[in-house]
Amino acid sequence: MSILKSVAIFGGFTMISRILGFARDILMAAVLGAGALTDCFVVAFKLPNFFRRLFAEGAFSASFVPMFSITLEQGGRQKALQFAEEAFVFLAVGLFLLVGLVEFFTPALVYIMANGFTDDQEKFNLAVTLTRFTFPFIFFVSLVSLLAGVLNSLGRFAETAAMPIILNMCLIISLMFGEHIMETPAHILSVAISVAGFIQLVLLYWVCQKAGYRIKIRRPKLTPRIKKLLIIMGPAALGAGVIQLNLLLDMIIASHLPDASMSYLYYADRLNQLPIGVIGVALGTVLLPFLSRSIANGDEAQVMKSQNQAIELCLFFTIPAAVAFLVIPFDLVGVLFERSNFSPEATIQTSLTLAAYATGLPAYVLAKVFVTGYFARGDTKSPLKFAVVCLIINVALNIILMQYFVHVGLAIATSISAWVNVLMLCGGLILRGHYGIEKKLINRLLKFTICSLFMGVVLWFVQKQVHFFIKGETYQQIFGLIILIFSGIAAYIIATFTTQAVKKDELRDLFSKG
Q1: Dihedral sign, CA of 349, 354, 360, 366?
Q2: Cα separation, 278 vs 270, whole angstroms
């Protein structure tokens, strides 16, 4: 299966998950609003995700998937399965100890990660309680990431892409039917997160078994392969740690800003994560086993081709998405979130934050493509060095810009540091001869930009025409937003075919059988 087809499958399921995620966030905005309660839930939700991205989807996946793919390619199915079992039990033991420690030291952890809450003891205690409910999620979802790595290496992406759907469904159900079961809606939401992780693990374990890769539980043993995995994981963990430290510092700084600042950042990031999740995560997930197998076979030409395909696909989606977020942020945020406890002022502040995030949108996704070029070759040290530089830049910009733009300044700093990271990642690959920018790519970049600007003009014009609907009743707002979105999509598609930025034969190849 080609990269384009694999990304289409993964991205399609991710799109379903993101749509459900929007439904979840709309409900959350209505039930929790933008204030202290949401701030506490955001902290509780981000903490397990912080460790998940650090250990599971960050360092572990970046190290495990290339090793598993190479073992499968060179040693066969049985050796690959044995390696997966060794890694599974080793990861499970480490996670069990981590969860136990965090549950005991939760107050200290919350104090470090959101020390701005200490001025309000009730707010601090609530954040501690919610974090204790959410943190078991890291145990389940990290093991899910290992099983997903096995399936992805086999070219099966649909099942792993569908897993986040379960999380969103659990949260939606808890918001709709569990609001009064516990002390606050945030309490039942936090419990639902861990329940969703357990369901994901059970289902994906069953899928692996059906695929002929039943992961047996064996006694933990520090085998040569696990030692090698840990050696590769070391720099990857530090690199992922620097990236997560970046996000952590953003959260610490945001906790010192006025109430609801963290909420504005959260809701804006949720919208910004749609293209990042659908395209960026799909590209990174699909590209890693593809590149690992090509490198194992010594096929550098295929490696170069795969990277350029991924970058073209990235730019095709992210440039118009960034333009749309810059042109109609108020309409998007207003229609999706402004109701009940989500005020017009919250819409304004969230929209400004979204526009700031949008300036770095292509960079967030490109970074996932370029970093895969390092991980597939077992190089986890170079991304670490680049991440440290970006951390320093981000912190410095945070301190400077928050004085003038408050929470929006944090989003601007994130975007700038993301572009610096991309330039360093791309430059490093070029200097080593692992990547070359083709004329075809530059040509398409110019065409995608022109088409996106045309789409932006169309959106601006249509926005004026549907203003009446956007300010009307809920059904009118939804109708107006649908007109806006589809007029933008239609304008972009027409422009890409007119300029031949996309050709018919490429679409035929994407959707053909075989």
Answers
A1: positive
A2: 12
Residues 327 and 468 in one domain: no
The single-letter DSSP state of residue 397 is H
Q: Based on the structure, what is the number of domains in the chain?
A: 2
Q: Which domain holds residue 334?
A: 3-437
**DSSP designation for 135:** T
> Could you give the CA distance from residue 193 to residue 166 in angstroms, rounded to a whole number?
10
What's the pLDDT tens digit per position in 478-509?
A: 899 999 999 999 999 999 989 988 766 665 55
Q: Is the dihedral of CA 237, 242, 246, 248 positive or negative?
A: positive
Query: What pLDDT shows up at residue 514?
Result: 38
289 in the same domain as 170: yes
261/498: higher pLDDT: 498
Residue whose C-alpha is closest to residue 16's, from 137, 135, 167, 151: 167
Residue 373, token pair as written in the block: 């070029």
CB 292 within 8 A of CB 66: yes
Residues 178 and 322 in one domain: yes
- In 10 A of CB 191, how many CB atoms? 18
pLDDT 10s digits, 154-170: 777 777 778 888 888 99
Residues 492, 359 share a domain: no
Q: Which of 382, 404, 437 is the last residue of a domain?
A: 437
**CA 128, CA 162: separation in Å to the nearest integer?**
30
Pick from 437, 452, 471: which residue ends a domain?
A: 437
Let me know whether 500 and 384 are in one domain. Answer: no
Residues 56 and 17 both lie in one domain: yes
Kindly state the DSSP code that residue 119 receives in the 8-state scheme: G
Two structure tokens written together for 385? 């060095």
Question: If we measure between CA atoms, which residue out of 367, 356, 326 comes closest to residue 416?
Answer: 356
